[in-house]
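Continuing from the previous page of notes. For each protein in this section, the sequence appears first, followed by its structure tokens. Read the first protein now.
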Amino acid sequence: MPQAELVSNIVHAFRKNLIPGLFLQFFALTVCLCYYFWTPARPFFMFFADLKTSYGAMYSFFSTSLFGGFIPFVYLLLTGRIKRNLIKYLLFTCSFWALKGIEVNYLYVLQSVLFGNGNDVMTIVKKTFVDQFIYAPFWAVPGMTIAMLWPKNNFSWALMKQDINRPLFTVKMPTILVSNMIVWIPTVSIVYLMPAPLQVPVSNLALCFFVLILAVLTKNSD
């Protein structure tokens, strides 16, 4: 039954993402605390804040491509997780995350316009709600799920189309969405605690850290 399969998949996804999710949340919290309470780290943070302020969406384009695409690709390549279609995979993953970087950049800009740049509780709650309960379920998760079918099927459109079926929308996407919320609701709340110029840089660090730790733990459990 689809409902039983969905529940089973969600439970499995929760167990799979619990440890890397906790690592990610601890990492993001550590970064946030370093910014606010460790004075020697301030020049490091301000360097990236100045870059983001100077280059805006272009910073998000290249930074997210690097941290979400290129660095994880290098790790997966060096550990033998990617063995074919290397150029296609590299171009796809870097391009995908570059475009996602611009998308997230404007999401953060829009949220700043709507809710301001305060780090009070209500501002964080509003931004997190829009991020995780509007942007993620209605755009980010469906788009990413479908896009990732292409490399999963060795960049074959014919094979990819076979995976765009009812179970994709009734089982796989809801499972990914729940996993996304478990991992990222606390994380994006921490991201929104940062000043606006540092939100994309910290989000990029969190993204890269999560992809790498998930890859390490998945490999160790193989």
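Done with the first. The second protein uses the same format. Note its length before scrolling.
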Amino acid sequence: MEGLPETTLPEVAFAGRSNVGKSSLINSLTNRTNLARTSRTPGRTREINFFKLNNGLILADLPGFGYAKAPKTLVKQWTRLIDSYLKGRPNLRRTCLLIDSRRGAMKSDLAIMDGLDEAAVSYLIILTKSDKLKPNVLSKTIDMIENILRKRPAAYPSVVATSSKTGHGILNLQNHLTDLADLAATY
């Protein structure tokens, strides 16, 4: 944690399972093709990568949790870093917890939600790869996750469905992040 940059800007963290699309989503949000490096191999992001947007907001791309093609000791090390970051970063305004829309909320996602609720860290659920589902299936997935969120004190009450491939939901998420930056600027 002591090696992370200090800043006064509000931060939004992007967390989720390995290969859920965190880096791809950051690239879509910033309209850049390779700002955040993407890979088909699980576990390529091994550090917290920070991206400063217009001197108003910082996006933090976190290593994925779950399966990774990396040594177990390294995975444990970055898992501890993620946990420390999420629970102890003073400028963290929201965590975007990405969930693959095809898989729904898995045990590991629920465990992260438990930790965020316990630490009172505000989080927003973002469904990725929504282009892979038919609209009625996506709608059912959103309803199912929103039902889970009703019982969670730190959760933002609605879900944002996105597709980095088609751009679906990107503007909605950009507006959400802009509101966070604007709100932070008033303090």
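What the second structure shows: The CA atoms of residues 124 and 156 lie 5 Å apart. The longest helix spans residues 72-88. We return to this in next week's lecture.
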